[in-house]
Each structure stands twice: as structure tokens, then as C-alpha cells.
């Protein structure tokens, strides 16, 4: 059975232990891993690893020894309690063992949790879980958690005194950080506010948020692509303070503009969903293919200058190139 994005959020917080299992797949390995880290403790409790109630198997291992997975499902632990057989990095080469285990599953066996990359609708594993009456298939998209999901996660952890502004701050942070970093930030916030009844503030969030992230680089590239050159200076200073080198900044800018160019040529090539994907589509539409090719040529020339023996200040050279790009984007 398929889980919709909304049902996925609620099910992973409170999964049904009587089900045969769940397939978790998506393009972003970090988001897939984050969901897996959420559902397994919800199924078996926090001490299952120490009590040997989790069997961890790679997709490559069950290709070599298909019986390994079935043995893990049927094995009995020394400790009482529910069990999980977890298969990571599965693909259709692992399908025979996974499909056999799913078909042979019976009540009392370990629950089968399978993680995979981006599986096509024709994938044997995906089709098997979607068609199974007692198992779920959950596609994990690149969308960050919503404000409601953040508020619910904090409430479940005991942090309920949150005003509207702080929730907006956290929602913005969720759009900037990788899933694992954001979940770690929420965990820090809960500990930071332990026995503190005052409302969650911006200072509390700033004290717990990572000090160095990819967010500043994304901010800089979006500022350039949207022609907001007057906002570029402070973001570049922040990147410098985080140790980002001009060559790395040039590589990031080239990757961003290549994504925009590919989107103008073939809109279906942009697999990023949600607000971030919408933003990239708007940028690609605004620039158009011809101007994006000019932008890429400018970045290639800048990259060659940065890697040459020229002693000109490299960050100044890169900043000048980004300002020129931002001005191009306005025309």
C-alpha cells in the first residue's frame, strides 16, 4: 500500500507493529535515513540495538545469500520484544530475496524495513510493497518538514511553549539545513529548554542551530540568480568566515547554473520537489537558455582565472563575477 506524504509523517511517528514492513525510498539519502531512524525506534524502542532485536543487512549481502534475510525475519532474540530486519541500500538486484521474505512473512516475525534510492514505478521492490495488503511503500521527497510537523515533533518531545515567530524561524531553518542537521537542532533545543518554562525565543534557536552550514552558499547563489546584487556582500562575508574558498564558490555557482540550464532544456530533468524546486524553476524561466549559457561561460572563464598563477585577490575576482551575473539576471 502507498503512503501519501501526509500519512507518512503520522505513520512513521506511530507505526503499526502488526504490519509486515515498510519500503522507504527517495533521491535524498539523508532524508531516507532520517525517516528510517524515526520509524525503527518507534517500532522496537530505544534499547533494541543493545538487546540485539535489530538485524542490519545490506542489499549487496542478500544478493549473495538470499536466505540471510528470511533467517533474520524468523530469528528469535534472547530478549523479549518486537524485532526489525533492516535492509539498507536495496535495489532491484536485491529484489528476489526481499520479495521472497515479504511473501513468507507471518505474524510474529520481525518487521521488514527496506531503504533504497530513487526507485522507478516499474521497480520490482516498489511494486511488491505497493501491492502488498499488509505492507507500506513510502516515497520520501526533498521537501523540508512543514511548520505543523515541526510543532508536532517538539510537542511530542515536551516542548510546547512556542510562539508564532519562533515557529517561523524554525520553518526557515528547516529549509536551509540538511534533514539530519535539523533534527539534531530540534533535539538540542529540547535539551536546552529542559525545565525552562519561558517561551522558545530566537536567541534559544540561534544558540542551538549549526554555526556553519550550506545555507549561506544557497543564499548567495539564489541572490545571484534572482538579480539581488545589493544583498550579496554580507552573504559572501559569511561564507568567507566559514572558510569557503573562491574556487569552491565558483564550483557551487557553476553547478547551480548548470541545473538551471538543464531545466530550460528539459524541465523534467529537475527532480527537486517542493519550494526549492519551484524556486529553481522560476529562476530558470527568468534567465532563459541563451543567458544561462552566457552565465556558464563567464563562470568557466572565472574558474580558469582562479586556478591560474594570477596573483589577483581570488575572493575579489569571484565577487566581481557574481555581481556581473546578478546584473545579467536583471536584464
TrEMBL record:
Source domain of life: Bacteria
EC annotation from Swiss-Prot or TrEMBL: 2.7.7.7
One MF annotation (Gene Ontology) recorded for this entry: DNA binding
Gene Ontology biological process terms from the UniProt entry: DNA-templated DNA replication
Key words of the record: DNA replication, DNA-directed DNA polymerase, Nucleotidyltransferase, Transferase
InterPro entries attached to this UniProt entry: DNA_pol3_clamp-load_cplx_C, DNA_polIII_delta, P-loop_NTPase
Annotated catalysed reactions: DNA(n) + a 2'-deoxyribonucleoside 5'-triphosphate = DNA(n+1) + diphosphate
Enzyme type, top EC level: transferase
GO CC terms: DNA polymerase III complex
Family the UniProt entry places it in: Belongs to the DNA polymerase HolA subunit family.
Name of this chain's protein: DNA-directed DNA polymerase
